[in-house]
Each structure stands twice: as C-alpha cells, then as structure tokens.
Here is the input.
Amino acid sequence: MTPGIPFTVIGGFLGAGKTTLLNRLLRAAAGRRLAVLVNDFGALNIDAGLVASSAGDTIALTNGCVCCSIGGDLSAALIKVLEAQPPFDAVLVEASGVSDPWRIAQLGMAAPELVLDGVIVLVDASAALAQAADPLLADALRRPLAQADLVVLNKTDLVADGAGLQRVRDWLAEAAPRAPVCETVQAELPLALLSGAALPHAEACADPGCGHAHHGPEAGPDHGGQFETWCYRPSGLMSAKVLRAVLRDMPAGVLRLKGIVRTDEHGWAEIQFAGRHGALRPAGGAPAEGAAVVAIALADRLPATALDAVFGAAAAQAQV
Here is the structure.
C-alpha cells in the first residue's frame, strides 16, 4: 500500500496572513515538491526569481512546486494535481477568508490518494478581539477555529502591549480550547509544522538500531531555538494497540508527529499526528533510513519524558 499524499488546509479570516505564509512555504520548500491551490494566485505576488513558467491557471516554479488557481472548482483542481507525475510531496489549499476550511478538508479526504495532514488556521492578533465583537464577523472568525489542528496567532508584534496580547490569548483559549497555538510575526512558521511531509528525519542518532530519544532544537531556516524535536529509533516491533492509544491521548505539547515503524499488526506502518488528529496505517515498505519517529513542539513545551515513556511502552508491549 502506497502512503497517501499529505493534504493540508490553511484557513483564517481576511488579513490573518495566509498569503504571507504560503509565500514563505514556497520559498523554503527545500527540494520538496508542493502543490498549492489558491483562489487567486495573483494575490500571492510570487517572487519572480521562482517562476519557471505560467500557463492558464497554473504557475510552475523553479523549485518543483506549483501554484494552481482553484477557479471555483476545487475538485477539478485537485484531480489535476493528483494526475501530475511524478506525484507531489504534499498538497496545500488556501481557504478563502470567509470559507470553512473543515469543509475543504472533508472534500480532500474523499480522494483516496490524499491523507489529511491538518487544518491550520491563522488569526490576526491585532484585529481578533475587534472582529470577535462584531456580530457580522464573529461567526466567520470563530467557525474555522472549531476544527483547527493548529492555530497560528499571527501579527503578535502589532499588539500594543503584553496585557493586550494576553487578552487575545484568553479569547483564543475560549474559542479554540482543544487546538495548540503557535505565536508568530510575519507568519514565520517552519514548513514541518504545516506538512508532515517536511518533518525532519531522526538523523541525530548515528546508530539506526538504537531505541533512545534525542532532544534538541529543530527550527529549520531562521527559527533559532523556537522549536524542538524528539526523535526515537526503535530496533524492533511496536504494539499497534499501544500506538493507537498514544494517538488518542498524545502527550500535551506535541504539535506534530510522524514516523515509520514496524508493528505487530501491519508490518511497516506510518504513524502521524497533527494537532487533534492521528492515524496509524500501513506504509509502502521499509524506509532506507530504518524505523524512526519524530515529534515537534515549542522549545519550552517538549514532553520528552512522556514521549519516551509511551513509545517505550509500545516497544515493550510488542515483545510480550
């Protein structure tokens, strides 16, 4: 069974920073072929140095990525992207500022080639409270947050003071109580948080057979120590039952997790978690680098000890 193509939906109210984020992703693809579907790619103002060619509703970029205009028919745009050869590493869709990203996610889930990687919702920290107080805007602002796997609280630098930012945080905790929140300026978010296809592999350990965890900063370009990764490289089987329990009750603080391991049920299997959703499914085969699991969290919220414990239990249970 071939693993599906990660499918991510990016939502958020008008002016939250979706276009800024997509531009960052396109410029930092780092060899990964991304297909980005937008309502109007003209608004992206793509760096001219990245544009390889343009034809109709598609812009091909020099880094192997493409931007496609949805043109009012997302299904047709998705079919066109899925027919491309070689296949893309990930597909991202920008929801319009007043649309429901979860409905777009459900449409993508209907395609067997795609695997929902997450619903990411941006919020303008400088405008959210005023928008939430407007009865004409409140529903459009809150509705996308209800199903968000990750909330990006953007433009935090435009909030006047710390007390004002805390009021936004308090409102967001009430509006989206289950979603992890990442605070940003200019939508500076690592690609790995937007797509599981971009998660770093467990390269910190020189011995692919070890079963230890490795902790350290994983920021990608220009992110300093804002994020950290946890890496685990099991040498034997893992209990599928225990792994499913981990996905249902992931240690608090994990923003994203992905890996390929051998289980007592599937053989080689892919494990993935984003925000509120997780999945364990058969993988296409053994990875060249060996079994590995990688998680990303904010630097001060990495639940390393808890992850060591639950994945250690999955390994131990498979030996019983």
User: Anything to note?
Assistant: Residues 304-318 form the longest helix (15 residues). The first strand starts at residue 5 and ends at 12. Residues 100 and 144 are 6 Å apart (CA to CA).
